[in-house]
Amino acid sequence: MTTTVSPAATSAPVVDPARWPDVARVPQVPLRAAVAARLLRRVAARRGLHVELPDGQALQPAPTGAPVLRLHHPKDFLHRVGESGLIGFGESYQAGDWDSPDLVALLTELATAPETLVPTGAQWLRSLYVQRPPDEELSTTANARRNIHRHYDLSNDLFALFLDPSMTYSSALFPAVPGRPPAAHRADLPAAQHRKIDRLLDLANVGPGTRLLEIGTGWGELAVRAAARGARVVSLTLSEEQLALARRRITDAGHGGRAEVRLCDYRAAEGEYDAVVSVEMIEAVGRPFWPDYFTTLDRVLAPGGRVALQAITMPHDRMLASSRTYTWILKYIFPGGLIPSVRAIRETTARHTRLRVTRADAYGPHYAETLRLWRERFTEQSAQVAALGFDEVFRRMWELYLAYAEAGFRTGYLDVHQLLLTRDEATA
Hints:
This protein has helices at about 20-25, 30-45, 75-95, 105-110, 125-130, 140-150, 155-160, 190-205, 220-230, 240-250, 290-300, 315-320, 330, 340-350, 365-380, 380-385, 390-410; strands at about 1-5, 25, 50, 70, 100, 210-215, 230-235, 260-265, 275-280, 300-315, 355-360, 415-425. It is of the alpha/beta class and about 425 residues long.
């Protein structure tokens, strides 16, 4: 039995059931909701959360300044979480069942040692709500373009609302301050994105005459900067929106004769290249296809060539624990992917290719700051987001996504690495 979300409360968005069927649907699972209520009390007590009920009263005492979870529709919240765990938690936010005056602070607390949220003796409860990723989202050659389309083809104008003018959608690299995390300002973001790109190009030894393959074009900024160095660039993308804008930006920069963008799956890459660069694309590949991805890199790399990757990563044990779990992020933001560990990258390349990871530099705090800047700009542009045709459920979804990712990097649950892969030509 299900009921439909009512927009009666002022905090609740109007939910279009055709666009958001699982957000519009409120499950009725009384026993599971009762378990979720007990877990909520336990988590609030152990993590010092202030859970605020609709009448303004606290669920239980909490320390002053504690992160706030403000429940607008407690019953709906508990039934959603009871049915599908963290997927329900995210859908409940989209529906307006809960809010927080500081979403990042709340999610940072929940992302700290998340394995301790559920008591050890109650881990069996996961079997009640954990889902497996659907086969139709597996990043096969047939499915990959559809997966990419769902995120990257939303609207170039949407991304332009919160990205910097370089249209770079990956972690920036801010100036290092010894002993302190990076402190980013909006004016610094374009330079920090160029610093990241230039470091990758340096890592791959890209210069005049370099034959460069880029896997994952984005909106073309790396291709522009590589061409400006005198490289000859072939860049691959599966996003038609990115393809059109990247080609235009390359032409406008005067590098149309040096950089070419192709609508092409990485598995179909052709040619031989002195360098391969790929920025935060491996996360979309999916674990079953990591061997294909790295085999492709090995196949197209010329003798003596270098591969520079930028990859979001997570600790190996957490990667293994989540590798067969369907999450809210996979359902709504990045279908078909999996964030790898550095160990998984090392093991996959060693087992399937002649490539070896010879350098790995982490800078997760820089991503937290990058995401903070994106999130703030996105939130400020809510009227423009609506003007582009995106409803409030979508806006809340993206606010949660950006805040969730920022919290992950602030806690170390997520990291980002720049990796150098080379061959030992003597044994290749």
